[in-house]
TrEMBL record:
It comes from Gigaspora rosea. It comes from the Eukaryota. InterPro entries: LRR_dom_sf. This is F-box domain-containing protein.
Amino acid sequence: MSMSYLPVDCVTIILEYLRYEPGCLFSCLIINRSWCQVTVPILWSDPFSIFGEKFGRNIIRSYLICLNNEKRLDLIENGINIPLSEKPLFGYHKYLRILDYELLSHLVRSWMIGNERFKYFDITLYEEGSVSKHQFCLSMLCKLFMENCSIKSFRLSKSWRHLDIPDVSMFSSGNPGLTKTRKLEICFTEDESKMPNTTKLLNLLPSLCTELNSLSINFPTVTDSRDMREFYELFKAQRNLKKLKLSWSRQVFNNFLKVVNSRINNTLTSLQLQRLKLDNLSLDALEFCSNLKTFKIMNLCQDLTLTPQCLSSSSIYFFKNFYFWSNCNMSAQATAAIIKKAGRSLQRLHLDFITNETVDAILHYCPNLSSLKIDNKSDNDNNNLIKLLSGMNGMKLKKLDLVFNSVIPPRLGQILPPSLDSLTLLNVNPIFYKSLEEFLNGIQAQLSCLTISFLGKCLPEILKVIRDYVKSNNTLRTLNFTSHPLRYICEGELNDILVMKQELHETVDVLFDDSKDYPNLDAAT
């Protein structure tokens, strides 16, 4: 069938895959009228990301000429110059689906000042009266979007030196407004007392956004004395919330637990906590989240200690994935308790430390674990890792990721579970190639995929070690090198890599994550 006779629905589906490939989409604009009419809504669904910020001033201008003449006259009367006679080719504003308020505010300022390299958030560049002009123009655009768009993703971010929203009605009076929003991100780095209109909007969100699938809340400046009641109402209003990410505010998390305890919301599939103080906490409410599949405690969460009642309770969790990464001051007892309560449900586990408690919890309570990632921070971690892997022979572990901060323990290869299919070694120091050689030679598992990232460049000695292992392994099909191993190599070392790839390419795919910068690597196969 000729492409010119493809049904419009098929063309739309195809072009959706090119959403963030503007060069391809621009070519599609000029094929014919039908393709143009399909392409324009895709390009303008998220124009600031698709076109890039460097076109921000042009995007703002295109939106402003979508205003009717009455609204344009209002802008002119407020000292904002805009042509009255110019008409847009399309109603670009109707296609917007992803709105970042802070980015929009920044680009409106940039357009008004007429300098695309305008310093982000620097309101000192304004002339007298420019702030009110900016707020008026911003209000006009937001009302235009709320009255004509079906916004699917909305980000309300307020950073320091950023202005309060001009008027709550710019978000609440339009239809459909935010009623169709499925993804909401709220990020405050400013004292709320300086932003009364934004605070009013937060109180309105539970009535505006009731069909969220994804919600992210980040409040670094809020103290624990503030009860954050509006978020309790926001959680309670949701009928189909799938993903929740909470950062900084313990009170917001407590309000979430209250809603869960009341068994109002049972649709959550993913919960992520970041930068939260988690001392003396009870997570028993998670027992009621029977659809929860992924639980993440990440990025500088502190002092995880569970209440004695939570530690001793018989509650169980249903999540399959538990990520515990980049944290500090964490109780091994509390971490082990979470692993135990997930137990047979747990299939993927990421830990940035390993202790006797966590080893015992994994071996005795998690028979269905199929993917494990562990960061070895010390020799003591190595001892616990050896204890863990030695006890996993009867389990069905398929994927293992190990992060090393020192020499790889040579005997570790001998005790890898025989069920292992994929092995990833991160932060391997090429200087210690002898220990890597002993490790690889000891592996009995029938690996099909081996991934290695180096601390530094690929040395010829370590390439030989890896090449010899691959040649002796009849099951390996993929060899990945990550973390830009080619960046610092010289011409002679690149030739060594080319030789290795040519020797292995008939049986093994050798992949480099920065190979696009070295066309000869692809030519080698």
